[in-house]
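Subject: Predicted fold for DUF3450 domain-containing protein, 254 residues

User T.R. writes:
Posting the sequence so we have a shared reference for the thread.
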Amino acid sequence: MSKRTQIASCVIGALALSASSIAFAGPLEELQKEERKIQVAAAKSQEKINGLFEQSQELLVEYRGVVDQTENLKIYNDYLAGLVADQQRAIDSLQRQIDSIEDTKQKIVPLMYKMIDSLEQFIKLDVPINLDERLARVERLRALMTRSDVTVSEQFRLVLDAYSIENQYGRTIQSYDGTINVGGQDISVDFFNLGRTALMALTLDQSAAYVWDNEARQWQELGGEYLDSVITAVRMAQGLVPEDLIKLPIKAAE
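User M.O. replies:
I've generated the structure tokens; pasting them so everyone works from the same file.
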């Protein structure tokens, strides 16, 4: 083969290779474009996956919080149900008491009137210590029973208070001023009582002393031998002299 022929063959081969490269360049670029598209799509899909995962985690945390809150609410509701049940029992008890109030009033009101009558009778038969004050207390109780603005419980409390005050007279030593009637004549005196054991009266000029005879329901004048003792007793009750042993006329119990 001549050199010219060889050169021509080489040129033809080179042209063939160039044509082949040009022919393959088009599909390769297309493949690269598709690959880039796939990569972009994959990245976007991953982003969506990541976003969905984060949302699922948030929903999981929220779900756990709702579950915990539900449990707490159930426990609290059970607690409230117990309170409501206890309150209902208290309401039922109060309603039963309210229903029985009228029946209680029907029994307690007559009892209070009997107690007041008995108290008045006792005072009139008792040693007349602070007689006017005690009888006035009874009259106040009677007036109290007719007042609609005073509850039955308050009325009953005041009746019991009156009985308590009467009980105190049997344990107190006191002196107070007043008057006694002897032979139809009123005499101003200082009283002295040793509980209910003895009630005596000393004239203001300390010239005479009297003792109350509860059986005879009258005052009896004491002999001169008791005058100094009665004066001392009055002064002791008034806190003017210290307490000491004194001689007083005490009627012995039968």
